[in-house]
Amino acid sequence: VDDQGRLWAWRHTAGGTTIDVWSRAGVQAATLEWPSPHNASLRVIVRGDRLYVVISDDDGVPFVVRYKVIH
To answer: According to the model, what pLDDT value does residue 24 have?
Structure first.
């Protein structure tokens, strides 16, 4: 759940990952396709129109990546 009360639900499939975003009213607000090379066990924080994730590089070193959510 983000700072605006939206639920971010991650669906993992053989083809990659899809993120469904649901409003407080239970209406689907968005669907995002997640880049497949990122690991599935992520720490994710959403604030406003920014999505922050902690991922690991090839050597296992964690780092933060920031994405802008475009509506």
So the answer is: 93
Cβ within 8 Å of residue 27, ≥6 positions away = none
The pTM assigned to this predicted structure is: 0.68
Using alpha carbons only, give the angle 16, 48, 29 rounded to the nearest 5 degrees: 55
Q: For tokens 């605006």, what's the residue? A: 4
**In contact, 41 and 55? CB cutoff 8 Å:** no
- Enter the DSSP assignment of 39: -
User: Is the CB of residue 66 less than 8 Å from the CB of residue 54?
Assistant: no
Answer yes or no: are the C-beta atoms of 19 and 35 closer than 8 Å.
Answer: no
Give the three-state DSSP class for 58: coil
User: How is residue 4 annotated by DSSP?
Assistant: T
Instruction: Work out the average pLDDT over 18-38.
Output: 83
**Of all residues in the chain, what percent carry a pLDDT higher than 90?**
17
